[in-house]
Amino acid sequence: MNSIVECVPNFSEGRRAEVVDEIVAAMLGAGVKLLGREMDADHNRSVITFAGVPNAVEDAAFRGIAKASQLIDLDAHRGEHPRIGATDVVPFVPVRGVSMDECVAMARRLGERVARELNIPVYLYERAATRPERRDLAYIRRGEYEALKQEIASNPDRAPDFGPARIGKAGATVIGARPYLIAFNVNLATSDLKIAKEIASVIREKNGGLKAVKALGFMLREKNIAQVSMNLTDFNVTGILTAFSAVQTEAQKRGVAVLESELIGLVPLEALTQVAAQALKLPALKAEQVVETKLFGE
Amino acid sequence: MNSIVECVPNFSEGRRAEVVDEIVAAMLGAGVKLLGREMDADHNRSVITFAGVPNAVEDAAFRGIAKASQLIDLDAHRGEHPRIGATDVVPFVPVRGVSMDECVAMARRLGERVARELNIPVYLYERAATRPERRDLAYIRRGEYEALKQEIASNPDRAPDFGPARIGKAGATVIGARPYLIAFNVNLATSDLKIAKEIASVIREKNGGLKAVKALGFMLREKNIAQVSMNLTDFNVTGILTAFSAVQTEAQKRGVAVLESELIGLVPLEALTQVAAQALKLPALKAEQVVETKLFGE
Asked: In B, which residues are within 8 Å of A33 by CB distance?
């Protein structure tokens, strides 16, 4: 079965479409496919999602970083979103047939190459981090490009994992590996926001709830219903159906029904197979049993 | 999104592997992929499963029928399984992005071509049938090759849909279209076969139960547990989770728990997406939301 890695580089350009076009064009090629492309003018940032076989994805990420370093000047960049580099952050995400360790190895190899060939300082983050505090992107990015520029040479806490302790117009790049993130919302048959907030508070990991689940309560103003909005940060730890059932149980305790749920963006087949396996008491179900996997994935 | 049709031709050869090899080799080519190959020596029959884009699948089926007509002689064929032709039956099955009507059109076009180019009588069956009684394969195949040979010229009920009302050593071929068949079993936490038989009897269409569901109760001797074994003949009418839930409900009424379930063979992604959509109250979920579909299926 083909291994699939997703990569979601964030570039510090959200206004000049032709620049983003050029970066995307540099990344595409055999073995990778574009899955998404978002530009935000206020953030002055774009988020590109692509996926494919690991080697091709790693090479594509390198080409994107190289191209962005030619086209984006951090000294001239203004935007609402925190950033430290032309290519700000590059996570590798296992989708299928690839371990987290392999994605960590990709991140380290790419980081070393970016430093060597492009002379850009690289910080490893999330599962690829070399220091516990660097798991946290916000920590690495504190003070943004402007602060990093001042401190990188003098502050040992700012020493990059690869590359020079000095920074050019392309800034620094954060590279790492993390699990696939699933954005999953459950709409409640109530207009009482307090109930959604309570449920979110009970089920989220931070408060001792489900592991690898972040949750917030929101109001959907147009529909006048309350929503529990979740990020499942590792569906192999807490899957979609487990999260859904937890919300449903908590809602029932409060006399509220679940209206429906929604998945934002794409999900890996494994995450859906897992839902079906759980719902059908079918532990043996695997993605390989899907006709389409046999047809396209092997 | 790529359209996918599956084709499951049955050939009257289950002993000479080299003959089956040659037929399979004739069918494979650009746009089609082999999914399964079963030979049964007692039945003296092989079942080949392949799938791909509609045009390629239709052409592949023709090449298989042509090759089988050269290599298999029905006058010399003996086997336990009923048959009327070297290529006995050829169903087209919509998997994705293809309607049943399109598969019916494929069956008719292929039937006309087989008659014209190979001079083989063709009967249309299931959803492609031109007479109600011909929906039923067993009806078309009554008396097998030997009876058909005697009656085809004289009995108007035996008149083929395409081709000559006379039969050669390649016999006649039945071509048609049907929904994807899912073989799905639910194992019960009991060794009482009677309970499995009762449940099967309640849920199957024949007794007024779930539409497009065939069900039988079986004993799994090795595990000493009873099983409700189902064929879901159209998952768009009754899906896997609906069937599972019906068995579970009936089991609960009888004080018996469900141990686990099993899916035999491959299932279309749509059938799994449907399970997840139902389990998560997520009506908007579509196969297009799966990363792999974006990567391979478009």
From this structure: 294-295
